[in-house]
Write a structure and sequence with these properties.
15 helices; 48% helix; alpha/beta; two-stranded antiparallel ribbon
Length: 341
């Protein structure tokens, strides 16, 4: 009897030998074509657990992706903490539109209770979707829940430019809001683990090497990553950071992440050498070129490049555009399903 996609995923995440890498949807994976196929659409699906789950459950059948993942944005924690959100359109993801503490940074921050957190409508929708994908997946597929990193949430609260500047000029302010976001995320993830999801996938784009140097990462981002990851005993942890993260890959691994998700800007061969099986590597097929703008042949070549380099899980290097065509996602999947080491 052959290995199931979920078994392969667990082996890959633990840097164990597999017949081939899994090919997964690690970051946002919904496309307009997928939404049309399953009859559920953004922006309504961001608020409706049934629609959210329907899109996620369709990704294996329609796109071939060997995972089931919800939700589809990096705004729900920010909204819970007071940001106003533009929920986008059928082909665009939600965006944070206001920073509630940008001019009010002297405020005394008080964390809500777990009971209050669970009453937030979007949290309720995500919980319903998560329970549904665990129960209703037709194949033995790994389940993923997307979250936002504390440093990125802090940038939503005060404005990203402010936060990055404060790491130099007002370090205690930067830590105040990062710690507050970390406390909220820790509380959310402790609840999420009880749902039984296989892995969380955390996106922390504001902690990119493009934004802060390694020593700033260690001072302002790393402590909260360790804080939110430490209580998770059963749930695996994927940390995604945009940009060329080779200079900060050791810092990412130091967080305690099970796996590091990397963009195509990070050299895959050098990343595999540097990681040295201390964490699994996920990626790093380009979302713009080739997935959005390239040909199926170019997509296959990119996927095989990542597999040949030794990436444990093949995936889009960042959140997939909703405008990516089925044939290009299928090309990524087919290249890896038929991959021979």
């Amino acid at each position: 009897m052959g290995i199931t996609p979920r078994e392969r995923f667990f082996k890959a995440m633990n840097c164990e030998e597999t017949d081939r890498p899994p090919v997964c949807g690690m970051t946002t994976t919904a496309t307009v074509e997928l939404m049309d196929h399953v009859g559920a659409w953004w922006p309504e699906a961001h608020h409706d657990g049934k629609q959210m789950a329907r899109i996620a459950l369709g990704a294996y059948e329609f796109l071939g992706l060997e995972s089931v993942r919800v939700p589809y944005c990096l705004t729900y924690e920010a909204e819970a903490l007071g940001c106003r959100i533009d929920f986008g359109k059928r082909n665009s993801t939600p965006m944070v539109k206001t920073n509630p503490y940008k001019e009010n940074f002297d405020v005394d921050l008080e964390l809500m209770s777990p009971e209050e957190m669970l009453k937030i409508p979007r949290n309720q929708a995500i919980i319903e979707a998560t329970e549904t994908i665990i129960k209703d997946r037709k194949e033995d597929l790994p389940t993923l829940l997307g979250v936002t990193g504390p440093f990125t949430i802090a940038g939503h609260l005060v404005g990203t430019e402010n936060l990055v500047l404060w790491t130099i000029t007002e370090p205690e302010l930067a830590k105040k809001f990062s710690n507050y976001a970390g406390d909220y995320e820790k509380m959310w993830l402790e609840f999420v683990e009880g749902l039984g999801v296989d892995s969380i996938q955390m996106s922390e784009p504001t902690a990119s090497w493009d934004m802060i140097p390694p020593e700033m990462f260690d001072e302002f981002a790393l402590p909260n990553l360790k804080k939110v990851y430490a209580p998770l005993k059963k749930t695996m942890k994927v940390l995604h950071i945009c940009g060329n993260m080779l200079p900060m890959l050791n810092n990412m691994i130091d967080s305690g992440a099970t796996a590091c998700s990397l963009e195509e800007k990070t050299d895959p061969v050098e990343a595999v050498k540097l990681a040295d099986k201390r964490a699994a590597l996920v990626g790093n097929v380009g979302v713009v070129k080739p997935l959005l703008m390239g040909t199926p042949e170019e997509v296959k070549a990119s996927a095989i490049r990542s597999a040949n380099a030794g990436f444990n899980i093949i995936s889009a290097g960042c959140g997939m555009s909703a405008l990516i065509k089925q044939e290009n996602v299928r090309a990524m999947v087919d290249a890896i399903v038929n991959y021979k080491k």
